[in-house]
Each structure stands twice: as C-alpha cells, then as structure tokens.
Write the structure tokens for this entry.
Amino acid sequence: MKDQTLNYTSKTNNPTIMQRSIKNFTKRIRSISFMIFAVAFMAMSCPVVVAAEESAPAATEEAASKAPKKKTLFATIAQGGWVMWPIGLCSVFTIYLVVDMYLRLSQKKLCPEAEVEKAKQMFMAGDYVNCVQALKTVNCAFNNCVRYGLSFVGKGKEQTESALLAEVDRESNRLQNRINYLSVIGVCTPMIGLLGTVVGMMGAFDSLGSGGAAGGGDDTSALSHHIGEVLVATASGLFIAIPAFMFFYMLRNRLAAQMHELEDQVTSLFRNMPYEYFHGLEIGEDVTYAALPNWLEQAPANA
C-alpha cells in the first residue's frame, strides 16, 4: 500500500505532467476564444455588407444624376445663337472657294498640254490666222494670252510683248479677285463672332440685373447659357477665320507660281516671231474702232 501511494503521489507531483496539462488547457481556451471572435466578427460585418450593397445602387444613381451631360455638336452650335447662321454660311463659302480655286489654279486648267502643243505646231507652220480660230475652242488662260498677243503682232515686238504681259496680269488679277474673298471671310467672321459675344454679354448682364448675383437656380442657368453663347460665338468666328487666312496665303502663292509658268509658256512662242513681215497686218476678228480723221477723208473730195 505504501508503495502504491508513493507512486501515485510521485505521478501527480511530476512537474512535466503539470506543464503539459496547463499548455493543453491554454490552447483550448485560445481556440475557443478565436472561434467566438470569428463568429462575432462575421455577425457584425454581415449587416455592413448588406447595407453597403443596398446603398451602392442609390449612390450610383445619384452620381449619374449629378454627372454633366455631354452636348452634341449641333447642340453646341445652337447655343451660339443667331450669329451661327452667317458664320455657317461663311464656312460653306470658304470650302467652296478653296476647292474651286485649287482646281482653277491647276496646270490642266491654266495651260493644258494639248492646247500648248497645238499652238506650237501652228506657230511652226506659220498658220497664225487658223491658230487664232483654233484657240477659241477652249477657254483657258494660255489661249487667251496667245490670241491677245497675235492681235498685236502687226504693231511690232515691243507692243506685242507689252500686250502679252498685260494679258497675263489680267488673268492673274481675275483669279486673285476670287482668292481675295478668303481674306474677306477671314476678317469678317471674327467680327461676326464678336457681335455674338456682345449680344451674349448683354443677355448675361440682363439676367444678372433681373435676378441678382445671388439668384436662384433659374438665374444661374440663364447666366451660364449666355456665357456659353459668348464663348461659342467667339470660338466659331476664329474657327472659320484661321483656315480662311491659311488657304488665302497658300492659294496666293500657288497663283504666283502658276502665273510665272504661264508667262514662260506664252513668251516662248513669240520669241522668234518675224515681226517685220506683220507690219500693218491685223490678225484675228477683233473689231478696231480707230480710223483716219474724217477731215483727211473729206479733203480730197473738197479739193
């Protein structure tokens, strides 16, 4: 009995067994506490997630309602007011002038290769009378200059060359007058936009005077509408004027280059013209209105 009692006492008093028991108990307490904390956290977070899911559509709808609506191009143009009509007409006229003058200033329109070759062949053959008739079939700057020069060959080299240069200048001025409309548009469209700016500012100050600076939403929207009208009108005038000036200078330079080419083509035909054989002759069907004075015609009759 004593031995059994001693063994039991020694087992219970062993420090290793006691430490193991305490560690196992502590682990169980920790695991139970962790489970309780996890359950409590899930229970607390579920209402928050549900509330966030319920509030998300409402917040999205509110943000969508407050987001600014994008305006279309036509709505922006309409905001500029009545001045957009003349500015729109100027834009259409600008496009027409650019396309038309670019085609008119091409080499095919001013100096067609077929007409130049035809004139050279007739000049080499000495058929100047039929050359005048043949060049009337196609209306171009080259034919006009050659026909006008042939009408002056009977008056000598100096007058013929002067007539050729005068006709080249006439063709250049005729085309330059059409190009100058682009400059007119470039000057007028900003002025039209400025007129829209003044009208829009008058409307803005009128809305401020009627509603006051601290007015309600209607007054603020009216004021923003007038300010938008001011900005659109000004920007539209500049939007048309800047390309109009660019194309004006581009086409003017193109005209100068083409006129130099036309002058070279025309003068090369008359370079070796035998003017001494044309003295006193009239080539062409142009009617001349100058005649001898009538007293010289009547003098032999009176005598």
